[in-house]
Amino acid sequence: MNYWIRAYNHQRFRVADFIRDYGFIDWGMRNRFEVGDIVFLYATAPESRITFMMEVTKVGMTCEDIAKDDAYYLSQQYYDEWLAHKHDHLYVRYTFLKELKTPMLSLEMLREHGLTGAPRSPRKLWPETVEYVLENV
């Protein structure tokens, strides 16, 4: 099992609302996620902290397999861009485990515990960071 961090921009898509409504979220799969991996979702500025703990429950899905989520897009440009390229890659499903509201998982605190910079694309976490996050879940 691997631990990942993945950033999301809540000015483009209502990630938190979708997760609360459905209990999962489907996302483009550009990394080698495996079923059982844990993914911490990181809300970008101004929140700048981990907000959800998720588990990978499906990998290698096609765009025909994913949930219909067009009502959750906040940016028409971002939605149009996704539509134009939705067949270009596979998808992964993250299933909800826990919502995280602690300030201990802010970017500043994560950087003090091994995170090298603000998350942009999905990346594996170093053991020091994993240990710290799990202590604060």
Short description:
It is built from four helices and six strands; from the N terminus they run βαβββαβαβα. The protein is an alpha+beta fold.
Report what the structure shows.
The chain is an alpha+beta fold. The chain has helices spanning 15-22, 76-85, 107-112, 127-135, and strands at residues 3-8, 24-29, 38-43, 49-61, 90-99, 123-124. β3 (38-43) and β4 form a beta hairpin. The mean pLDDT is 94.
Supply database-style keywords:
137 residues, alpha+beta, 6 strands, 24% helix, globular
What is the secondary structure topology, with strand pairs?
Layout: E1 3-8, H1 15-22, E2 24-29, E3 38-43, E4 49-61, H2 76-85, E5 90-99, H3 107-112, E6 123-124, H4 127-135
Parallel strand pairs: 1-3
Antiparallel strand pairs: 1-6, 2-5, 3-4, 4-5
Structural category:
alpha+beta
Major beta sheet, strand line-up: 2-5-4-3-1-6
Q: Tell me the Rg in angstroms.
A: 15 Å
- Care to count the β-strands? 6
Biggest β-sheet, characterized?
A: 6 strands, mixed
Overall pLDDT score: 94
**Cα end-to-end separation:** 18 Å
What are the secondary-structure elements, in order, as H or E? EHEEEHEHEH
Helical element count?
4
Low-confidence stretches: none
In percent terms, what proportion of residues is strand?
25-35%
From the spread of the alpha carbons, the general shape counts as globular
**Helix fraction by DSSP (H/I, runs of at least 4):** 10-25%
